[in-house]
Amino acid sequence: QVQLVESGGGLVQTGGSLRLSCAASERTSSTITMGWFRQAPGKEREFVTSITWSLGRTFYADSVKGRFTISRDTAKDTVYLQMHNLEPEDTAVYYCYTDLSKSGRYWGQGTQVTVSS
User: pLDDT in tens for each of the 117 residues of the chain?
Assistant: First the structure.
């Protein structure tokens, strides 16, 4: 069973930047997509961004377009989320996920991002 290990969360001021990483515990040839959701206190988990593993196509929520960039390193089975111009509304627990063709979706444990005003 694939495990996802996230890192890079923390506290940053408005306008600052953070970079999140998510590494898969084992290599798999069935990865379709990796990406990120986030969940703010009292709110539902929402989609942030994703990237297709083979072609590197990217998708973003409207709220983060132009500020967040997702990328992948297929050799390291790792996905990155570079976040710029952070806003207090970006404060949330960020969850990495991967979709595998053979066994479905797996989630990371989550990493806290807090943006102070």
Answer: 889 999 999 999 999 999 999 999 887 778 899 999 999 999 999 999 999 999 999 999 999 999 999 999 999 999 999 999 999 999 999 999 999 998 899 999 999 999 999
C-alpha span between 53 and 13 (Å, rounded): 32
What DSSP line would sit under the chain, residue for residue?
---EEEE--EEEETT--EEEEEEESS--TTEEEEEEEEE-TTS--EEEEEEETTT--EEE-TTTTTTEEEEEETTTTEEEEEE-S--GGG-EEEEEEEEETTTEEEE---EEEEEE-
Residue 52 and residue 32 in contact, taking contact as beta carbons nearer than 8 Å:
yes
Residue 101 token pair: 């063709």
DSSP β-bridge partners for residue 113 = 10, 92
How many CB atoms within 10 Å of residue 39? 14
Mention every residue, 6+ apart, whose C-beta is less than 8 A from residue 63: 89
